[in-house]
Amino acid sequence: MARTENLNAILYFEAVARRGTLSRAAEELSVSPSAVSQQIKLLEQQLGVKLFRRDGRQLSLTLEGEQLYQSAGTALRMLKDARRNLGRSRETRRLNLRVAPSFGVLWLGPRLSRFVERHPEWELRVDAAPDPTDFDRELMDLDIRYGTGNWGGMHVEPVVDDDILPLATPDYLAGLGGDPFGQARFIDSARNLCQWDSWLLRNGIETRANRKTLLMDRSSMALQLALDGVGMVLESLAVASAEVAEGRLVPVAPKLPVLRFPAHWAICPSRYLGRKAVQIFLGWIAEEAERHAGEVARIVARHGLTVESFESVTELAG
């Protein structure tokens, strides 16, 4: 019985330490504040130390309490992980995936039908969100994330490169005459790793001080403005390859190199790599990335473009 009481006491202690008062902890645990108080007193008696300093109803951790809280938090997270993993073992045909919104809509979305056709027995849940997954708290198997690849403590592997170049509709480009960068309205995507200021500086292009710029929060919005003939957009073929392949958008400066660097990554805790769902999806998306690379190569050849490759976007900035 003592062991059971100790486990209960640790659970109650962790809730009080995290919530700051007996009443809030009791509400979370669906018990009375007196029951929580009794468990805390029992734990302090068993350990022979004071775990909290009491200031009215507010509680703060002692040094010994802080040490126990760190250990208890780690242990409880491990138990939650184990419980989630056991639950997943009963759902071996479900994949929970998070993806950056524009990439999800413009790159992944049009390709998902091929995944479903190949794996019709799998349930697929896709969550398009701008923030990375907190794998300790969220029920996700894998995250396809846009960024520099710097996610500490995670398994990280590149999936799709960014191939950056300025694009516009044929009609808009024709209307700019012989000085496109002097006359154009510039469309930027706020979340892009490479934006107009960096691209212009790298290519030694000066524009007028009062140039017109439109800043969008998403690549999907920036692309739509360009397709509507509002201006020229600096974008990646990762999200604009279909528009360029179909001729709805064309390269503005074909003599300048396309800038290539890894930008879209698959991330998850290393222990998730043993999951069947993760293995299947990583294998499938690698094939789709290879297919996409072939599409980009055809665009590059058709427009007589050159490609300048970088190992990272930080190398590009340097």
UniProtKB/TrEMBL annotation:
<comment type="similarity">
    <text>Belongs to the LysR transcriptional regulatory family.</text>
</comment>
<dbReference type="GO" id="GO:0006351">
    <property type="term" value="P:DNA-templated transcription"/>
</dbReference>
<keyword id="KW-0805">Transcription regulation</keyword>
<protein>
    <submittedName>
        <fullName>LysR family transcriptional regulator, glycine cleavage system transcriptional activator</fullName>
    </submittedName>
</protein>
<dbReference type="Pfam" id="PF00126">
    <property type="entry name" value="HTH_1"/>
</dbReference>
<feature type="domain" description="HTH lysR-type">
    <location>
        <begin position="5"/>
        <end position="62"/>
    </location>
</feature>
<dbReference type="InterPro" id="IPR058163">
    <property type="entry name" value="LysR-type_TF_proteobact-type"/>
</dbReference>
<dbReference type="Pfam" id="PF03466">
    <property type="entry name" value="LysR_substrate"/>
</dbReference>
<dbReference type="InterPro" id="IPR036388">
    <property type="entry name" value="WH-like_DNA-bd_sf"/>
</dbReference>
<dbReference type="GO" id="GO:0003700">
    <property type="term" value="F:DNA-binding transcription factor activity"/>
</dbReference>
<dbReference type="InterPro" id="IPR005119">
    <property type="entry name" value="LysR_subst-bd"/>
</dbReference>
<dbReference type="InterPro" id="IPR036390">
    <property type="entry name" value="WH_DNA-bd_sf"/>
</dbReference>
<keyword id="KW-0804">Transcription</keyword>
<keyword id="KW-0238">DNA-binding</keyword>
<dbReference type="InterPro" id="IPR000847">
    <property type="entry name" value="LysR_HTH_N"/>
</dbReference>
<dbReference type="GO" id="GO:0043565">
    <property type="term" value="F:sequence-specific DNA binding"/>
</dbReference>
